[in-house]
Design goal:
Elements (H helix, E strand, L loop, with lengths): L3 E5 L5 E3 L15 E8 L10 E10 L4 E10 L6 H9 L2 H10 L4 H15 L5 H12 L5 H13 L4 H7 L13 E3 L5 E6 L20 E5 L1
Parallel strand pairs: 3-5
Antiparallel strand pairs: 1-2, 1-3, 4-5, 6-7, 7-8
Helix pairs in contact: 1-3, 2-3, 3-4, 5-6
């Protein structure tokens, strides 16, 4: 197991140490700094209430590339019951269903069952398509969207469902196929990023950002 890496001060990238041992490299380009890999032990955590993820940070002052851990509390359980009852009894939602039955009967009829399906652990795709149809027809006001989003967040509903409602700030790209609905009700997905020459972009292991991924309108 290697204990050293090179830090490229011009690009900010981590490079492999060019020797199999930890002896100094003769004639090393001054653009590179030698960093010691420091591996912290994984801390104890409670999987029932916490989650853990690995972090890697560069500390040039200490001459270290530290592999550490971040322990975070899991969010509270989603309260789907309150959300469904509040939404399906909301005066504005009922007015939306009433006014939309002539303009978008399929979407209006589909809204309750697709909501119930999402609440039962199914895919949010059908709900998102129904909700987006109603938004594109102007049946979901900005005020109603914000109220529904706020309610969903306060009741700790899953992020994919909150994202399907739309109107949120665009999140960081974290995985291929990740989806986001913008304020106009348009769907975006995460795809592999390419540079100007068409080559796939690689992630920089020294940063938490995913340079290899980008948002693209579906």
């Amino acid at each position: 197991m290697k204990n050293l890496v090179l830090f490229d001060t011009e690009t900010g990238l981590i490079r492999d140490y060019p020797r199999a041992d930890d002896e100094p490299v003769v004639g090393l380009d001054p653009r590179y700094e030698v960093l010691q890999i420091v591996r912290d032990e994984q801390p104890d955590y409670d999987p029932a209430t916490q989650r853990i993820r690995e972090t890697r940070t560069v500390d040039r002052d200490a001459g270290e590339w530290r592999w550490s851990w971040s322990v975070e509390d899991l969010p509270p359980a989603a309260d789907w019951g309150t959300f469904k009852a509040s939404l399906l009894q909301h005066p504005a939602i009922n007015a939306l269903l009433g006014s939309g039955i002539s303009n978008a009967p399929a979407a209006v009829i589909s809204l309750p069952p697709t909501l119930l399906a999402a609440a039962s652990g199914g895919s949010v795709d059908d709900f998102r398509a129904t909700w987006m149809s109603l938004r594109h027809l102007g049946l979901v006001s900005t005020e109603l969207l914000e109220e529904v989003r706020t309610l969903a967040i306060s009741l700790h509903l899953p992020e994919p469902f909150v994202a399907a409602l739309g109107g949120s700030s665009r999140p960081d790209a974290e995985f291929l196929g990740q989806e986001w609905v913008d304020g106009a009700g348009e769907l975006w997905t995460v795809v592999k990023a390419r540079d100007a020459s068409g080559q796939f972009v690689a992630d920089d292991p020294a940063t938490p950002a995913r340079e290899s991924m980008m948002w693209e309108k579906a």
